[in-house]
Design a protein that fits this description.
The protein is of the alpha+beta class. It folds into 2 domains: 13-114, no CATH class; 137-371, Bira Bifunctional Protein, Domain 2 (BirA Bifunctional Protein, domain 2), CATH 3.30.930.10. It is built from 13 helices and 10 strands. The chain has helices spanning 9-18, 28-48, 52-63, 69-79, 85-112, 117-120, 137-151, 165-168, 201-209, 250-265, 317-322, 339-347, 360-371; strands at 155-156, 162-164, 188-190, 193-195, 214-223, 235-246, 270-277, 280-289, 306-315, 330-337. A hairpin with a 2-residue loop joins strand 7 (270-277) and strand 8 (280-289). The longest helix is centred in the N-terminal third of the chain and has 28 residues, at 85-112. It starts with 8 loop residues before the first helix and ends in a 5-residue tail after the last helix. The structure holds 3,4-dihydroxyphenylalanine (DAH). Residues 198, 200, 240, 277, 280, 311-313, 334-336 line the site of 3,4-dihydroxyphenylalanine.
């Protein structure tokens, strides 16, 4: 005979609390009573489980297929006299259902309270950083410029990026042999269709569709056969402006563009320099005093103290006549600027190419810097 394993007194007590001892051959009354007692004990055990792991242990104890306590009642049921079995069977089914429901209820409670979460995740781990997204610096510049001109009575117009030679050059008074029309300056698609080299063709499209008075701002992407270098990109944004009415003079051009520069760059000195464009006469480029050195000269302004921000001029009569607008009655002015260049000088970005890299680290940095107002 082998001696039984010595049981700790507390273990004996535990056993008595959790187990229902079914005699070898119970009679009907014992079966019914003890099954009822098992239902109570099982329900208590499930309710006492404080984690999904503990609940699983209790489930095996009472509902387990092999040695679960309910299983021994099923065996005993088969040994009862035939006439007692229907009543014992009903009791068995009722108890089984009660225990199963108690188990499911507790399982849902524990899952909902996340009782086992500590074993699934390390709460000391640093949180994952959130990238909320932000507008690109060039988009911000375009939107701000649009806002200023909207206040001055301008509406927004857009046009196609694939243009014909006539819209891109001919209607804008380019002479037929202008070098900008060469294959190595311009990206041709098919025949005389090309990727527009500037937003100026939308001037023509606007004049074709609308009668003066006209005040439009035309943002859009343009393309040139330029290499990617610190100050050039083969595709970039432009903003065109066009104002046509009776009695419009160079005074309106200067006043409006100076007003714009003061709004956008702060009260920095501006200057106009004579220039040339086929579609304006006279033409002028506008500079704003360098915001980095305050006019003393630095790398950003190439030691000049000034940063060029746009080309402009009085719309050439030939441009008006190309679309049938009476150039004796109407005059106007136009301008074109590059918001990417403006973003570079405004935010001190040293290389235009970073605007195209889509490097999230740069965009994050820019977003943080730009969410405050730009330095004046
Ligand atoms: N289209 C010119 C360019 O791409 C910019 C420009 C200059 C537009 C003068 C104008 C203007 O409307 O009047 O360089």
């Amino acid at each position: 005979m082998t001696a039984g394993l010595p049981l700790r007194p507390s273990a004996v007590k535990e056993f008595a609390m959790t187990s229902v001892i079914l005699p070898q051959n119970p009679n009907l009354q014992e079966f019914v009573d003890l099954a009822g007692a098992l239902a109570t004990k099982a329900s208590n055990a499930f309710a006492a489980a404080s984690s999904l792991e503990e609940l699983e242990e209790a489930r095996i104890e009472y509902l387990g297929d092999q040695r679960g306590q309910l299983r021994s009642f099923q065996v005993a049921l088969g040994r009862l006299p035939k006439e007692d079995r229907p009543q014992a069977g009903r009791q068995f089914n009722a108890v089984k259902q009660q225990i199963s429901e108690a188990y499911e209820t507790r399982k849902l409670e524990l899952a909902a309270s996340g009782a086992s979460a500590p074993t699934l995740a390390d709460p000391t781990m640093p949180a994952r950083r959130q990238w909320r997204g932000a507008k690109h610096p060039v988009t911000l510049v375009i939107e701000e410029i649009e806002g200023i001109f909207r206040e001055l009575g301008f509406t927004i117009a857009t046009g196609p990026e694939a243009e014909t030679e006539w819209y891109n050059f001919g209607s804008l008074n380019f002479p037929p042999n202008h070098p900008a029309m060469d294959l190595h300056d311009t990206l041709y698609l098919r025949g005389d269709v090309l990727l527009r080299t500037h937003t100026s063709p939308v001037q023509t499209r606007t004049l074709q569709r609308y009668a003066p008075p006209i005040r439009v701002l035309i943002p859009g992407r343009v393309y040139r056969r330029d290499f990617f270098d610190p100050s050039h990109a083969p595709a970039f944004e432009q903003i065109e402006g066009l104002c046509i009415d009776e009695g419009i003079s160079f005074v309106d051009l200067k006043a409006t563009l100076t007003r714009f520069a003061n709004r956008f760059f702060g009260k920095r000195p501006t200057r106009f320099r004579p220039s040339f464009f086929p579609f304006t006469e006279p033409s002028a480029e506008m500079d704003v005093q360098c915001g980095v050195c305050g006019g003393a000269g630095c790398a950003v302004c190439k030691q000049t103290g000034w940063v060029e921000i746009l080309g402009s001029g009085m719309v050439h009569p030939a441009v008006l006549e190309a679309t049938g607008v009476d150039s004796e009655r109407y005059t106007g002015w136009a301008f074109g600027m590059g918001p990417a260049r403006i973003a570079l000088s405004r935010y001190g970005i040293p290389d235009i190419r970073v605007l195209y890299d889509s490097d999230v680290r740069f965009l994050e940095q820019a977003a943080a810097q730009l969410s405050g107002k730009a330095p004046e």
